[in-house]
Amino acid sequence: MELQEKLPVSIFTEVDREIFLRDIYQERRPAVLRGVNLGSCLEKWTVEYLRQKGGDKDVKIHVSTVPQMDFLHKNFVYKTLPFSDFVKRASERKHSDFFLCEDESYYLRSLGEDVRKEPADLSKQFPDLAEDFHLPQFFGPDQFFSSVFRISSRGLQLWTHYDVMDNLLAQVTGMKRVVLYSPQDALHLYLSGDKSEVLDIDSPDLKRFPEFVKAKRYECVLEPGDLVFIPALWFHNTVALQFGVGVNVFWRHLPADSYDKKDPYGNKDPVAATRALQALERALHTLDELPADYRDFYGRRMIQRIQKRTLCVEQDSGTTLPSSQFTKPGCESGEM
Ligand SMILES: O=C(O)CCC(=O)C(=O)O
């Protein structure tokens, strides 16, 4: 018996800006976009071509003895290689030159020039390759945040995490399995920050993670030329079914000042969320001044208040609306 039902991600063809904005973007659900013009990269980006055009620029990569990379327990090391050497190694199964073992796995998530301050931008770090990649203009140029090279060895699995910006992940070569979970399933994913502690999503340890089976698993397999729209806060976990090259583009879906200014990766919580979480910590600290039975009593009332003010209600169509749209802040329950 399957652990979790695999729900398909809707596939759309012949998507232009108007269709994207009207039928996909508004829904705030993942979607695969097939047949969008990604430019000449689809024909050109062979291993040889990438090595030649990408050149010898140093890149920082993840290297691991196993294909399942685990950020929380750091089962990989960061190493630096010239881009051209990295592409060669990532594309082969066994390596004559290696760091850890001859069948080690590689992953590149490209970075900006100043790693701590600048988001990745393909046109700045790899201008000769960026010419071949055409991203459809589904959002305004002022919303653009970053474009990131994602290059993986065959079998490479990236941990489940969310990002705070909207994302189009383009698969240029190779096939990739993408599993997604709704933000509404966050509590079933055993989060540590923006990452899930459940590493093996196909065969999870249900003694440690009994709630995990409650999370609805959406799944798609990307082929070269496909894009997957990953709305902000949707969790995703990817497996490269073959050596694969992709580019993902993050853009700001909220007003620019909602985001943390010191966030080159696009995964720091929006400033208002960070402030709210800090305020919650302070409130809990204040509650610690009371005995346990009082903490329990006021804790329950706080939970109810938070639920009433923030949770979305499931609609028949599968879309969600914040329940606060139906209640006036401050007089939602009349009981507090
Ligand atoms: O496919 C990958 O390499 C990971 C993609 C990813 O995490 C992202 O686009 O945010």
Question: What structural keywords apply?
Answer:
336 residues, alpha+beta, Jelly Rolls, 8 helices, 22% helix, 27% strand, binds 2-oxoglutaric acid, iron, dioxygenase, Cupin_8, JmjC_dom, EC 1.14.11.42
Describe the structure.
The N and C termini lie far apart (46 Å). A 9-stranded mixed beta sheet has the order 2-3-14-9-16-7-6-4-5, with helices on one face. α3 packs antiparallel against α4 (83-91). The protein has helices at residues 17-24, 41-44, 47-54, 83-91, 122-125, 127-130, 271-287, 292-310; strands at residues 6-8, 11-13, 31-34, 58-64, 76-82, 105-109, 144-152, 157-161, 166-173, 176-181, 191-192, 195-196, 217-222, 227-230, 235-240, 244-251, 312-314, 320-322. Helices cover 22% and strands 27% of the residues. By secondary structure, the chain is of the alpha+beta class. 2-oxoglutaric acid is lined by residues 150, 152, 158, 163, 167, 169, 176, 236, 238, 246, 248. Belongs to the TYW5 family.
